[in-house]
Amino acid sequence: MENPKWPKPPRTRPRPEGNMSKATFNPIWPALALALAAGCNFAPKYSVPPVATPPAYKETNDWKTAEPADALLKGRWWEIFNDSQLNALEDQVLVSNQNIAAALENFLAARAVAKQARSAFLPTVAADPSATRTKPSSNVTGSSGSLYSAYALPLDATWEPDLWGSIRNTFRSSTYAAQASAAQLENMRLTLQAELAADYFQLRAQDELIQLYDDTIKGYKDSVDLTRTLLETGIDSDLDVAQADTLLETTLAQATALGIQRAQYEHAIALLVGQPASAFSLEPDPRPFLPPGVPVGLPARLLERRPDIAAAERAVAQANAGIGVARAAYYPTLNLTGGTGLQSSTFSKLLSASSFYWTLGAAASETIFDYGKRKAATEQAWAEYRASVANYRQTVLTAFQQVEDNLAALRILAAETQQQDVAVRASRKNLDLAVERYKQGINNYLNVITAQESLLSNQQTAVNIRQQQMVSTVQLVMALGGGWSASDLPAPSRVLHASPSR
What is the value of pTM for the model shown? Predict the structure, then answer.
């Protein structure tokens, strides 16, 4: 990727976008100032930072997903695994997980900040009714020292016109921040959904291993019985019986240890679905799982399918608007004030027409000297913008890496599965031959033990490879965005009212 050509921050007072060739302001003519400033905006024109995208994924060579290849993942992506138990658990994650609840509240808070920024476009109106009774000092020149009353029903308004786009860019910045928070919420949902699916398939792999060990232990018990029978008939020896017993007890201990990891996966799932681990359990299901095909699509589409990329891009837009806020500080601000109401020294005359009053006013302020404060603030805004661009590009690069990692894993694991299945079949045939030769007295029992251990090891490896396939499939779905699309992100005009729930 080529080094980006960053726009250079201005060294002098910035000039606004629009038709103004020179920023002018006269507090006596606010209407003229408003007209001149109608097109002023000091934020740089925004465009999504360019990133290099490859034409195709490298790791799809010699490996294809299920047809149709142009199908897209849907929002409920976990349904491609066709497991009703997993579907039910995923639904619980969306409504019960506390991390998702916290991310939702963060979005609502960001949206509220944007609403606060929007309020600056309109005047602030305040009412401050009062009633006072005063006894002035008689020792003050001009004071009679007589008691008097004052009653007021004022209505005051203040408004700061957005002459240089500071309010607009503040609102845009907070709106983009709300969009980024909405994307972060979706990314949190996707992350936890994928974590649940991965834990679920690893738990099911433990169920399959437990079933494998149960079946193996039954076979080992039969072998112990065989050696004892042959010992009683004088064909076998105490050594063979001891060896068979040792293998059985060792395998029993290994089978017992499998329960630890299964319990931990079950507890992790309970946490993800928002339930106490003590009150949650899943029935064993030892059936083997096969990974479904996942439609991958083109790399360029990845930029539109990952919520974390969308969040990073919105952060760039937010920082871009922040530059406009910082640069607008070079120019004067105008405050318009107005008031109306009723004032009277006697309550009975408060509501009469003669008690009515009104005021209008305008005040302008401009910083003459700040020892480089505004310049430093502008430099900070530009640095934050460049940092957000770098973070965006790094997020995109990481996304491509994650997709390639899991494509490579699935391609290699598919070949490894076929090879391991051949190894399992060969181990089983070897065990059958060893047992038969042992029964005929050709070989000793050590050959049987070796063949039994080899078969169990190969079977266990086969289960672990299938587990890796399922987990890698889940991680690939997550890396591809889980069926999310940037079009699902609320537009700036709707983000303040869009529902965050699916």
Answer: 0.84
